[in-house]
Amino acid sequence: MGSQIRALRLERAWSQEQLAEIAGLSVRTIQRLEQGQPASLETTKALAASFDVPASRFQPDKSEGEPAMSTADIATANPWSGFKHHLAVFVVVNGGLAALNLLNQPSHLWFVYPLAGWGLALVVKAIRLKTG
């Protein structure tokens, strides 16, 4: 499991600190997991939601005595943690664009276009998460 977590983290170019923040875990927990220590069910769910993969991907083989995660358990993983990360990026990037626009061309407010497009996509994602 540790090598899978590390591979997924590096694939996304995340540091251990970033993964910990996104998953709502401590950096020490991420370090322990990457060293091969077992994860709790809640930790597995948080990682699966953060990487947007099924939690069963992190389950040990049946031969190791651990039961596989049920579909109901996978469905209860917290998808909002990934949304919160995207929302934070949205605020930072669009705040920077707005500042750049207002400092350089205050007569033409072009920053509203990416703000509106990205904002609409976030609203749709929030609605899907809420109703799904």
Describe what is shown at a glance:
This protein has 132 residues and is mainly α. The protein folds into two domains: 2-75, lambda repressor-like DNA-binding domains (434 Repressor (Amino-terminal Domain), Orthogonal Bundle), CATH 1.10.260; 80-131.
Report on the structure:
The chain folds into 2 domains: 74 residues, lambda repressor-like DNA-binding domains (434 Repressor (Amino-terminal Domain)), CATH 1.10.260; 52 residues. The chain is built from 7 helices and no strands. Helix 6 packs antiparallel against helix 7. The radius of gyration is 19 Å and the shape is elongated. The chain starts with a helix and ends with a helix.
Main sheet attributes: strand count, strand direction, barrel closure? none
Could you give me the name of the CATH homologous superfamily of the largest domain? lambda repressor-like DNA-binding domains
Helical residue percent band: 55-70%
Give the uncertain stretches in residue-range form: 62-66, 69-76
- Pattern of helices and strands: HHHHHHH
Number of helices: 7
CATH topology of the largest domain: 434 Repressor (Amino-terminal Domain)
User: What best-fitting shape do the alpha-carbon axes yield?
Assistant: elongated
Number of domains: 2
Name the beta content range: under 5%
Q: Average pLDDT across residues?
A: 83
- Amino- and carboxy-terminal Cα gap: 28 Å
Structural class from helices and strands? Answer: mainly alpha
Give the radius of gyration.
19 Å
Task: Please write the CATH class name of the largest domain.
Answer: Mainly Alpha
* SS elements, strand count: 0
CATH architecture assignment name of the largest domain: Orthogonal Bundle
